[in-house]
Amino acid sequence: MNRSLLIIGAGGHGRVVADAARLTGKWKKIAFIDDRYPELVSAGVWSVIGTVAELHNLSSEWGKAVIAVGDNATRIKILEKTKSCGFDIVSIIHPSTQIAEDVLIGEGTVIFANAVINTGSKLGTACIVNTAATVDHDNQIEDGVHISPGAHLGGNVVVGTRSWIGVGASVIHGCAIGYDVIVGAGAAVTDDIGDELIAVGVPARELMK
Fold it and tell me: Which one is catalytic: 13, 56, 94, 137?
């Protein structure tokens, strides 16, 4: 088994992904790819070894990769490029998470410290469930969604592709959030939100992007 992990994106988010990967104990070798290389040669205690353009030369040595880019649309695009270069895309789950046995987690999804995901929930490809976020039962989280630190989703919530739930936001039971939505920090979502909107405030109100 290849126990080498390449992380694409060496920013703060990438370092959190690397630390979560380290704590799982599954990886003997971890390094980064970042387009700031060669100006950037390290990220925390880990090395930066090349740019995204060089991925096709690295798959035979590394084999496994995860995308650690904060922008949702960009993360999905880079994931597809990384797969096309021959990498297996893995998910990284911090060991302190609490995840029900029947939860489905798509490839390339990362789940950070103290997050909780309850029974019947499904997470798509390249999602982020950030530190201490909670996803209650029977949620449907589509590809490329980011649930920020301390955000809380009630049961039977749907979040559309590439949407972003801000720090400390709350979504009540049964709400449906469209694709490419931004829910602002601290917002309280009490009703459905359409596609490509911003929702802010308590209760959340919709704004055009």
Answer: 137
